[in-house]
Amino acid sequence: MRRFGRSLRWALIKAAVAGTTMVALAFLIPLGMMVQQTARDRAFTAAERQAAALGPALAITTDQDAINRALASTDAGAQRRMAVHLPAVGQPAGGAAPGSDGVGTGSPGTAASGGTSATGTGSPGTSATGTGEPGGPTLGEGRAPAPDVATAGGQGRSFTVKVAGGYALLQPVAVDTGRTAVVEVFVAESDLTRGVATAWQVLSAVALGLVAISVLVADRMGSRIVASAQKLAAAARELGAGNLSVRVPVEGKPVEGSPEELREAGQAFNTMADRVVQLLAAERELAADLSHRLRTPLTVLRLNAASLGEGDAAVATRHAVAQLEREVDQIIRSARRAPEDAPAVAVGCDAAEVIRERAAFWSALAEDEGRRWQLTGAERSAPVPVQRGDLAAAVDALLGNVFRHTAVGTAFSVDVLATDGSVIVLVGDAGPGYSDPAAALKRGEGHGGEGSTGLGLDIVRKLAESTGGDVVLGRSAVLGGAETRLRLRTRPEPAEPARSGRRRTRGALFQK
């Protein structure tokens, strides 16, 4: 039952772990992905704010010293993560830009003086690295490729590009009519995942906590269910052991966590136990009534036996009638007495003494029928762990079968063999033997003619099995007829791997 309790609790724990894990994963995985996306959006939003912080300064002036001071005042600029790509210095149409060679070819100037300005239409001018705005100097540490910077300035829209170590946010800012600067803010890879690992750890801890709580709850529920089931199983074992007064307590407030089905099972068990007690009581009354009906014919037998006069046959008959009356009285008293009121009976007797007594009883009938018989091995004591009356009934059943199922004059023998761990009783005859040994051992299936009930060998078998022994039917090697071997264990048989094979060998030996 302890193994059952552990298996039930473990099954509930596994079910709780599986269910809680599935629920936790269904909620925590999307939540973790949302946290990761939130960290990414937060990083780019912060970059946009940094870029927007330079918008007022660029709108006022494009002086490099002023812009450098504005860059240094921002967090990203102080960390060398921001750059400003200024537009080229404008010039009149057809004129030369300051610092140019004066030829008017429109070739790019140096970074100090700027490149060729845009035309009066506001179309992008030519930069040192390609077409489009801006084409002027870069303040700060720029990381974005020049074509992407020009695209941001020319199209007037912000976007991000992949650079070494992270991403660059390119934010265009109009400085005056027809000119656009581009603010570049570097966003490192670490900024995109900042706090994500901690969030995953917290979510994992929450998931483990939920699983642990579910395990504790499942174990608590399982312990209560197992406790109720163990009480029911213990009551069933006691009832099976003969304690007819055992009942499962189901009245009053139910135990918290105990399933209603187990309470119903307890009520059903109590109803069954009450019914068993009623049936046993009715059976005892029936046995007493049936036994009491034998008193009248026994009285007639006793009176007839008293009129037989003297002689061995008359004395044996009167002795048999007196013993039969005692047995009937004992049956009536035992049937009337409740099992719990039965006095303790000492278990154990001398098998040799009982067999000598029963053989002497049957010897008178054997002499009348002209049967030769022999008793061997009953000279020495052979204690067995069974009651005297039960063993006597078994021996009477074996000898009675000889007289009932063989012809008058058929010889028989009784052998007693006391071994180290058992006592073996062999009853053989010179009759036709068993036609079907397997069917003969089945209760109520014997076909021995008129007066046979098929219960004799079943009584013998039950007595043998109560000690751990057995009954084997076969053919007598000496007399040639049936032979019944009754083996009573006197101590527990040691466990042997080849026990079943040895038993089959012995059975085959007796069934030749």
Polypeptide structure, described:
By secondary structure, the protein is an alpha+beta fold. The protein is built from 15 helices and 12 strands. It has helices at residues 2-53, 55-60, 64-73, 75-78, 146-155, 189-192, 196-240, 260-293, 295-306, 312-336, 351-369, 388-405, 437-440, 456-466, 499-510; strands at 82-85, 138-140, 159-163, 166-176, 179-188, 349-350, 373-376, 383-384, 412-418, 422-429, 470-475, 482-489. The strands form 3 sheets. The chain has a 5-stranded antiparallel β-sheet with strand order 2-1-5-4-3, with helices on both faces. The chain is rod-shaped, with a radius of gyration of 54 Å. Mean pLDDT is 76; it is low at 91-132, 253-257 and 497-512.
Radius of gyration from the CA trace? 54 Å
Helix percent reads: 40-55%
N→C terminal distance: 45 Å
Percentage beta strand = 5-15%
Q: Summarize model confidence as the mean pLDDT.
A: 76
* Subunit arrangement of the protein: single chain
Largest beta sheet: strand ordering: 2-1-5-4-3
Largest sheet: 5 strands, antiparallel
Structural class: alpha+beta
Low-confidence stretches: 91-132, 253-257, 497-512
- Element-level helix/strand string: HHHHEEHEEEHHHHHEHEEHEEHHEEH
Using DSSP, what is the number of strands?
Answer: 12
H/I helix tally: 15
The outline comes out as rod-shaped
